[in-house]
Amino acid sequence: MEDARECLRDGVLNHLNVLEIEALELSRQQQLCLQQQSRVDDLRIMVDKLRAQKDQLKARAKTTMSLQQLKAVVHQRNEEFNDDISEEGCSMTAKSQLSFLMARKTQVKDLLQAHHLIGGYDVTETCRGKGVCISIATAFEGFYLETYNLELDVSRAIQICRHNIPPFIPLEKLAQVNLQTDLMGFLSTLSHHLNGFAGRRQQIRLIQEVLRDSVEVMESNVLFNTIVLMCADPEENGRAVLCTLEYSDLSRYLPTKVTIESEDKALPSTPQWKESQSLLLQTPAHTALKALKMKGQIA
Amino acid sequence: MAENQTPTLQTMERVYEAEIKLLQEEIAMLQNQQENNEREVISHFGEHTQRALTSQPDFQRGTKDTAMNLKMELEKLEEDLARQTKMNGIVLNECEVNTLEKSKTKIVQQHRVSGNCIFLDFQVEFQLTEILEEEATIVRSITDLNIVVDGCEFIDISAFVSGVEETKSLLLFFRALRAFSERCEHRNRTFAHFKEKYPELVRLPEGCRGEVMVIQNPKIPGCTLSFVWNITVTKDGVIIPKIDLLTKLPEQAALALDQRMVAENGPQSFQSLLRILGVEATIEALIAAVCVE
What we know:
Chain A: This is Centromere protein O. Chain A: Keywords: Centromere, Chromosome, Coiled coil, Nucleus. Chain A is an alpha+beta fold. Chain A contains 8 helices and 8 strands, in the order ααααββββααββββαα. Chains A and B meet through helix 2, helix 3, helix 4, strand 2 and helix 6 of A and helix 1, helix 2, helix 3, strand 1 and strand 4 of B.
C-alpha cells in the first residue's frame, strides 16, 4: 500500500519506465546466458569431434604397420616364395596392403603439395565436370605473393565465369588470342602478366622498405609500369637524380627503358651513370639501387 | 538465476577450450607420425605399393570396407595428380619433406623434388620458411635453393639457373623451364621431320637434340646450308629463339652467284623469309631451292 502510494506520487509513468529498464536488463542477461550456453554446446560438439578423430587416428595406426614390421613381412613372403613356388607368393596380407595403400596416399598428397609449391596451376573441378577452377600463383625472388583464381565453364566453348584478376590486367584481350584454341598457352601468358605485375610491385615495396632513406618513389601507377624514383645524392650540396623506369612489356619485371635525369645536365652522360642505366635495365630496381648505394653513388 | 549460472558456463568454456587445444596438438602429432611412417614405407617399397593397388587379398570383415574406402580415396587423389601433371607440363616423380624447425610462429621445411619436363630431368632442393605474422597472415618464402638439370640443352640455361638459385626464384625457374623445354621440343620435332622427309639432303651433326641442321645436295658438292637454331633464356626467364643461316659455297658457284650477291644477302633474306613464312615453310623453301639446283 505504502509502495503504491509512493508510486502514485512519483507518477505511474516513471514507475513503468523503471520496470521497463529492469525487464530489458533481464532479457539482455538471458540473451547473454543463452549465447554462452550455445557457445559451450558448440565447444562440446567440437571436443567430441576431435576425440573421435583422435581415436580414428589411433585405430589407423594400429591397422597399419610400421616400416620395420612391413620389412619383416615382405622378407618372410619372399622367403616363402622361394621355398614353395606353387604357393601364391605374390599375394599380400590385408594388413600390409592397407599399409601400402595409405603410404601411397601420403605420397600422392605430398606430390600434389609439391606441384602447388613449385607454382603449378591448382586445378579443381566444379559442377560435375562442367567447370574448372584454376589458381595461378605469383612470386618474386623467393617470396610467394598473391594467388589469382579463374573459374572456367568448359561445357561448350570455354568461358571465364568468375575471377579475381585485377581489372587493369588485359584479361579480355589475352582471352581473345588463344583461350579457345590453346588453353595452356593462354594460362602461360596470363601467368607471365600476373607475375610481371606482382614482381614490379614487389620491387617498389622493397625499395620503400629497405631504401627508405635514399630513394623516394615519386610516381607509380596501378600496373607499376611507369615508375619515377628520386635518388638522393651522397654529397651534401649534391642534386637529386631522377630515374624513370618504363616497362613496355607487361609480362616482364625488368624495364625496357631507363631514363636518368638531374639538374646537373652533365650527370646522366657520365660513364658512372651510363653504367648504372644499363644495370637498371638488367637487374631488379631494388637490387640495382642497393648496389649503387654500396658504391656511394647515391646516399 | 542468470548470475549463478554464468561462472559455471565460463569455467566450462575454458575447460573445453583447453581440451580442444590439447586434442588438436595431439592429432597433429599423430598425423605427423603416421605420415612420416608412410613416407618411409614408400621410400623403401616403391614397387610393392604399385602391386598393392592391384592385388586383392582376402580381407576380413571390417577391414574390407576400410580398404575399399581407401582405394576410392586414393583413386580420386591419383586422378588429381594426373590432371595436375598434365596441366603443369611437369612430371614429379619423387618428393621428400623434412621439417627442420617448428615453433608457433615459424616453420622451416626442406623439400627435395625430382622429375622431368618433357626430356629435361631436374632435381630441386629448397627450403621453405613460413612465418606467422600479426593479423594471422602467413608469409611464405624460399630461403635456400639448389637446382640440378640433366640434359644436353642444359648448357643454354646454366646461366639462368645460377641466377635463379641466387635470387631463390623457384617459381620463375619452373615457368621458364616449361617454356624452354617446349621450344626445344619444337626444334627437335622440326629437325626430325626434315631428316625423315629428306634423308639424303639433311644431316644432323649433333643429333635431333642438337642446334644445327645441315642441308647438302650430294649432286652439288661443297655447297652447304647450315641452320643454327639457338634457344636462350634471359635472366628474367624470357625465352629467345634465334635461327641463323650459314652458307658455304664452292668458289666457282660463289663467283657465278656473286653477281646476285646471294652469299652476302642470304642470311638477311633468310631472316625476312622467317618472319613471313615461319620456320617450317622457310626451311622447306630452301630445301626446294637446293634440290632444283
